[in-house]
Amino acid sequence: MAVLRILLLLAFSCSSMAQPFPSRPVTLIVPFSPGTGIDILARVIAPKLAEKWGQPVVVENKAGASGNIGTELVAKAPPDGHTLMVTVNTFTITPSLIKSTPYDVLADFSPISKIALATYCFDVNPKVFPANNMQEALALIKQNPGRYFFASPGNGTPHHIGMELIKLRLGLNATHVPYKGFAGAMQDLIGGQVHMMFTLVHSSIPHAKSGRIRILGVTGTQRSPQFPEAPTFREQGIDFMDDVDAWYAVIGPAKLPAELVAKLNADVNSVMALADVKQNLLGQGLIPVTSTPEALAALIRSDVPRWAKVIAEAKITVD
Question: At what angle do helices 37-53 and 258-272 cross, to 10 degrees?
Fold first, then answer.
């Protein structure tokens, strides 16, 4: 009887392990508010994944605490693939800004795939900062240390940290003016209250096309597909801005089985390859990309110390 009971338990265990994924609805956690780039991505891919998996894929916005609330939920979720996260590379920056982050970026997650990126650019108001390219901009700043002001949507935002990287590497002295969000920062750049800003390309294009601001340089190894008129930083002799971008990814809780990670990666990547998904995202300023889980894990491992160094050297603190 005891032997029979053990055999029955083993059979039940094996049948449970063999249960196909997904066996119920999948939740895509977005750790920021609706309308953000992450939210847009999640809502574009969710119905496509639902078609592929034959189960509902529900997007849940769990905003707050600089993304920590939603990210912690994923870190503590069961490792069965039914709770995943669509996030952005502030995921690798936040732990250096908020020391009490309730999770370990490197230990508590299973990287699945990179899914999109957005490039950054250096904007100026030509009425108050008459530079036509990055070399002219650098010369003006160096000739007038502390005189020029750059805006950002807030202390510790990627816009702020990216500009601090430029300052540190090129020995510049420009004054940071943090705003409570992007809209106010861009409004004052257009109005000439501040001289420059490091921000996402797609959010700058309408103002650049109207002539209210000038895009002097863009990040990336190639010119932006959204605004090819602007040269890259590298084209202008600045060689450390190729991979300064906003990358977006799908990530799950730690200890996801390797075969499940492989399936999730294949399914997510196949969705990102769909023509209508690509067209939708490009129209919203996001460049569709894919990766292996291993490549995403390596990116996360390199990004954490990279941005920690900039944050420490520039003495950046959050409000």
Answer: 110
Secondary structure of residue 30 in the 3-state scheme = strand
Number of other CB atoms surrounding residue 196 within 10 Å: 25
Q: Residue 56's Cα: distance from chain center in Å?
A: 25
295 vs 230: CA distance, rounded Å: 29
Q: Which residue has the tokens 């953000």?
A: 36
User: Is the Cβ–Cβ distance between 300 and 114 less than 8 Å?
Assistant: no
- Tokens matching residue 134: 């990055």
| pLDDT over threshold 70, residue 31 | yes
Q: Is 108 helix (H, G, I), strand (E, B) or coil?
A: coil
b/e map of 204-214 (b: 16 or more CB within 10 Å)?
bbebbeeebbb
Q: Using CA of residue 58, residue 63, residue 67, residue 71, what is the dihedral sign?
A: negative
What confidence score (pLDDT) does residue 17 get? 44
Determine the average pLDDT of the residues in 25-45: 93
The rounded distance, in Å, linking the Cα atoms of 59 and 217 is 35
Model confidence pLDDT, tens digit, residues 196-227: 999 999 999 999 999 999 999 999 999 998 89
Residue type (1 letter), 240? F
Q: In this predicted model, what pLDDT tens digit does every residue of 55-76 receive, in sequence order?
A: 999 999 999 888 999 999 999 9
Residue 285 backbone class (left: φ over 0; alpha: ψ -120 to 50; beta: rest): left
CA angle 203, 158, 185 (to 5 degrees): 50
Amino acid making up residue 310: V
